[in-house]
Design a protein that fits this description.
With 141 residues, the protein is mainly alpha-helical. Helix content is 36%, strand content 4%. The protein has helices at residues 10-31, 35-54, 58-62, 101-104; strands at 127-129, 135-137. Strands 1-2 form a two-stranded antiparallel ribbon. A hairpin with a 5-residue loop joins β1 (127-129) and β2.
C-alpha cells in the first residue's frame, strides 16, 4: 500500500464536509430504526473522514488519480499568511453614547429599568419597547 498523499486541495475539503454530513445522516437513520442505511452511511463517513484527514485514498491510488497537484490545499497554511511580529493592533470599542436608549434603560449598570417610571424590571415581568424603542413595563406603554 502506497502511503503517499493523493488527495489534496478542494478534494479534501469536500470529503471532510461530506463526512460530517454522512455522520449526521447516519445518526438520524440509526435513531429512526433504519439500521442498514445508518451503518452504510456511517461506513461512508468513516472512509471520507479518513481520506480528508490523512490525504490518502485507496481508490485514487488504484486509478492513479492525484489531486495534490492542485496548489490550492485549503488545509495547508500559506507562507504569506503568517502575521509579522511587529504587526499588532489594539482595538477599543465604546458601546455607550449619550443618545443610547439601552444605557438610559440601565443596561450599562447591568440592571434593567423602565424608561417611563424608572422602576427596575425584574425577570419574568412583562415588558417591551415603546414608540421610541426604549424598554418599558407593559403597563407603562
Amino acid at each position: 500500500m502506497d502511503s503517499d498523499q493523493n488527495v489534496g486541495g478542494r478534494d479534501r475539503l469536500i470529503r471532510a464536509v461530506l463526512a460530517v454530513v454522512l455522520t449526521i445522516v447516519s445518526l438520524r437513520w440509526l435513531r429512526s430504526g433504519k439500521r442498514k442505511r445508518g451503518l452504510l452511511a456511517g461506513i461512508g463517513a468513516l472512509g471520507l473522514g479518513f481520506n480528508a484527514s490523512t490525504g490518502y485514498c485507496g481508490f485514487n491510488d488504484t486509478l492513479d488519480i492525484d489531486t495534490t497537484a492542485d496548489d490550492d490545499d485549503v488545509f495547508a497554511p500559506d507562507a504569506d499568511d503568517e502575521p509579522a511580529a511587529d504587526e499588532s493592533t489594539d482595538v477599543s470599542v465604546d458601546f455607550t453614547s449619550s443618545g443610547d436608549t439601552e444605557a438610559s434603560n440601565g443596561h450599562a449598570s447591568g440592571k434593567l429599568t423602565c424608561a417611563v417610571c424608572e422602576d427596575p424590571i425584574v425577570p419574568g415581568e412583562r415588558r417591551g419597547p415603546n414608540d421610541d424603542g426604549a424598554i418599558v413595563h407593559e403597563s407603562c406603554e
